[in-house]
Amino acid sequence: MALWGRMLWALFSGPRRRGGTQGWAFSSWQPHPPLAGLSSATELVSYWTGVFEKRGIPEAQESSEYIVAHVLGAKTFQSLKPVLRTYPLTPQQLKCIQELSRRRLQRMPLQYILGEWDFQGLNLKMVPPVFIPRPETEELVEWVLEDVAQRSHAVGAQGGPLILEVGCGSGAISLSLLSKLPQSQVIAVDKEVTAISLTHENAQRLRLQDRIQIIPLDVTLEGSWIHLLPWGFMDLIISNPPYVFHQDMELLAPEILSYEDPAALDGGEEGMDIITQILMLAPQLLKYSGPRFLHIQRSGP
Ligand SMILES: C[S@@+](CC[C@H](N)C(=O)[O-])C[C@H]1O[C@@H](n2cnc3c(N)ncnc32)[C@H](O)[C@@H]1O
After folding, report:
1. Ligand 1 centroid vs 229 CA: distance in angstroms?
2. In 3D, which of 62, 58, 112 has the Cα closest to residue 260?
3. Are 268 and 246 in contact (CB under 8 A)?
4. 18: CA distance to ligand 1 center in Å?
């Protein structure tokens, strides 16, 4: 069997779009409302950047820019029209920025504060404690797409590969593959109800629900693979499984430790619990002949 096991290792940093998330300090400090006269988006960004920096919040400027832009209905501060950056904000907008910034001071990840995040060009809903897709996982998707393109003549009786994702979380990997591979079908499994329900929501949101089966399944349970047989043998198995050594869990950044599901990160004593399980399942579930792929990535936290 051909196995392409790809493993990426990352330092204990938080989820990020650019740069890293490092260092932390919880605090009982309460922010004061911005001083009277601070009312434009630009002023608010610089006010909250200063507050975040003083409180040791990682990615201070990025955080304040995303929050202010979000309240003004834009994705990034840079995409705001110059006139909107200097225009006075309404009391309601100021209050909203204050509330979202308060959450950031409590170390909530931006992705949960905003309630959405982009992955491979798709806008996904984000809800705690479901794992926030990491930038490295976008590379995993790219690799799979490359492999599929190279073997497109051989995979998938229906014209596209049948893909199994173990541990779908928000659905980021499965849904981005479906969006790029219009002929393929995905079986997405996860043991957490919150993850299953978020993948359902994101599939509907992206109108990809017709090509994905979302199944609550704990792959560590004996015989769990039998529940997957009705869908036939897979062309490809993909997973970004939990892999943090159990004893290292407490070293994770507070953004992760306080908000993300430990079940998405804790890989057991040697970090291999789920990986071992997937390697055992693979021969039962992958097609017997023709090209078969198994991509396992260890990315984040
Ligand atoms: C690191 S997260 C990856 C989520 C998503 N694939 C991504 O890359 O954003 C690992 C996922 O595996 C799920 N998981 C953990 N143990 C599992 C198990 N025994 N069976 C099925 N899913 C499991 C977790 O609930 C979590 O959603």
Report:
1. 20
2. 112
3. yes
4. 23
Average pLDDT over the chain, rounded to whole?
A: 85
Residue 181 beta carbon below 6 angstroms from any ligand 1 atom: no
For residue 134, the ligand 1 atom closest to its alpha carbon is 9
Q: What does the block give as tokens for 264?
A: 């998405």
Would you state the structure tokens that stand for residue 266, as one six-digit string? 């804790």
Model confidence pLDDT, tens digit, residues 233-264:
999 999 999 999 999 999 999 999 999 999 99
Torsion of CA 70, 71, 77, 82, to 10 degrees: 140
133 lines ligand 1 (CB under 6 A): yes
* Amino acid identity for residue 53 in this structure: E
User: Tokens in use for 192?
Assistant: 């957490």
> 198 is written with which tokens?
């978020």
| Inter-CA distances, 266 with 113, 189, 199, 247, Å | 24, 17, 21, 9
Specify the pLDDT at position 196.
Answer: 98
Q: Looking at residue 138, what DSSP letter applies?
A: H
- The label of the residue with tokens 């591979």 reads 181
Q: How far is the CA of 149 from the centre of ligand 1 (A)?
A: 26
C-alpha 160/C-alpha 182 separation (Å) is 8
Q: Say what the pLDDT of residue 297 is.
A: 65
What is the sign, positive or negative, of the torsion defined by CA atoms of 119, 121, 127, 130? negative
